[in-house]
Amino acid sequence: MREKSIPIAGRVVLVIAIICMLLWVLFPFYWAFLNSIKKPAETFEPTWVPFLQFQPTLEHWRSELAIPETRRALLNSTIISIGAATLAVVLGTLAAYALARFQFNRPQNGTLTTWFLSQRVLPPVVFVIPFFLLMRQLKLLDSVWSLVLLNATFTLPFPVIILSQMFRELPKELEEAALVDGATRFQSFFRVALPLVVPGLVATWIICMAFSWNEFLFALTLTSQSAIPMPVIIAGAEHTRGVQFWYVGVRVLLTMLPPVILALLAQRYIVRGLTLGAVKG
Amino acid sequence: MAETTGPLQPTQDGTDAVPAAKGVGTRTDRTKAIFLGPAAIWVLAFTIFPLLYAGPRKMASFRYGKINQFVGLGNFARLFRDSNLHTALRVTLVFVVSTVALEMILGFALALLLNREIRGKNTLRAIMTLPLFATPVAMGYLGITMYYEQNGPINSLIRALGGDIVPWLSNPFWALVAVIIVDLWQWTPFVFLVSIAALQGLPLDLYEAAQVDGASGFDLFRYVTLPLMLPTLWLILLLRLVEAFKVFDVPISLTLGGPGRATEVYSLFTYRTALRFFNHGYAAAQGFLLLFIVMLMVSLLFGRIREIYE
User: How far apart are CA B35 and CA A104, in angstroms?
Assistant: First the structure.
């Protein structure tokens, strides 16, 4: 970036660094994939290329996907992540617009923003018992809806912070024109402001979805049977027959791929999202 | 009335046509409440309310199958005597300090190294986001196979390089190292991505000016890059510290806190107190101690952070 020509030695270091980095990041995924398509007896052999070194099999994928608990967990995880992300984005977008466009006095905008941010600072384990007791009272133990509610709560800071900055970056004149023309605040929000932040909205939704999918502590404490999502299935996989590398591979990929693929789609907004808006990616 | 006009209305003297047309005051207040209200009520209902709801229990020795008795501050006093808790605190501190320090150094160094025009830069960044979203529990579970002592890929590599087999998950020291490595894998890319995004946003003319003045490579870093990057680095530090203190998923899936209590981090310890031993009162007290530690840390760093967000 700064200098045009990098000396050869520097370039070699750079290439080696990049290769190491890629190997380091990608190896676990490849290892999981490799094990998932190997026959049990082959998992300990140092073979790395399917078809050339060994004959791949989809047998483990088929048998894992045939297990009713796994299918149910995939369905539960889908409901939880879509539900929570949608709730968080709807609530968060409205709040974000309020923080960007209105002046609050008691408490002030800055304090309100900090308050929303603080949801991500609180250690979740503090909430384990309070939520357990609350959900028991609400008869929502072992229900996907309890996890929808909780994940919406804990991912709410993402839409609030990211979208309030996006609304602030929109030119005010557009909305002022609409208001002067007699539009209500709601009309100018829905017709003018909202359509302009759709890309950010989608990216935020994806980030919330991925986080809700990956959430483990509450999923573990609040579900027992019918509402169990993927992360709990994977952690509960028993080791009675020793570690079955091939099933580990399948389960790990089944659990990880949805959020990882979603993250690639939200790529442009990841940095902004994960720094809660402080750094533009 | 001046108080209720939003920033959209440029003047505070009420001459603006917009609020007048909308019936001013109460109307704007209601609009504001409709936009902010749902989220605010939601947060109150699902974070503050449950804490208050469970509050009285931290004062009681609340245990299923036992008669409730009020123990006052007994649960808090116990925090200072419980040596298992102190072990958990120590393990957590070792974990937090080593992961955050290593991630910041590695991630920032990589960002500095790669902050130039490289072919496939976007692909590289895309690949670096993958670990951030990989389910932590899945990584812990996958780790069991990767750290496998006999013929696992990591030990195979070490042996190929001429080293001895490392007892990853059966030795207290190495088990903690194993947990730390998984965290490094997952979060070094975060430091890298944020650093490189911030580096690319730095004003180029400052560098040109410094170069005209004859600044060398290291001077550029020491007197231009570093000061400009400092706010971002503080922010990353805070975000990583906060997240590192929450660590739970990887230890419980990779090592179950073992061997012994070698990787029993704070959250895992509290989780067990609450749901393995059903001592809700004591677990709540532990939770408040953790909350206190994290809040203390955040408020110490907060001055810096406020500058960044404002």
Answer: 12
Domains in chain A: ranges and CATH: 1-57 (no CATH), 64-274 (1.10.3720.10)
The answer to whether the Cβ–Cβ distance between A248 and B134 falls below 8 Å is no
> ∠ at Cα B33 (B27, B38), nearest 5°?
150
A209–chain B nearest CA distance, Å: 10
The interface predicted TM-score (ipTM) is: 0.86
Q: Do A28 and B42 touch (CB under 8 A)?
A: no
Q: Is B74-309 CATH 1.10.3720.10?
A: yes
Bridge partners of A50, per DSSP, are: A54
State the smallest CA–CA distance between residue B173 and chain A in angstroms.
22
Cα–Cα nearest to B131, from A229, A270, A268: A270
Q: Which of B30, B46, B121, B133 would you mutate first to test chain A, the one with the most A CBs within 10 A? A: B133
User: What does the pLDDT profile of chain A (281 residues) look like in tens digits?
Assistant: 444 556 787 788 888 888 988 999 999 999 889 888 888 777 777 777 777 777 788 888 888 888 888 889 999 999 999 999 999 999 999 999 888 888 887 788 877 887 888 778 888 888 888 888 888 888 888 889 999 999 999 899 889 888 888 888 888 888 888 888 877 888 888 888 888 888 888 889 998 999 999 999 999 888 888 888 988 888 776 555 567 788 888 888 999 999 988 888 887 777 777 777 667 65
Coil/strand/helix, residue A240: strand
CB B295 to CB A255 under 8 A?
no
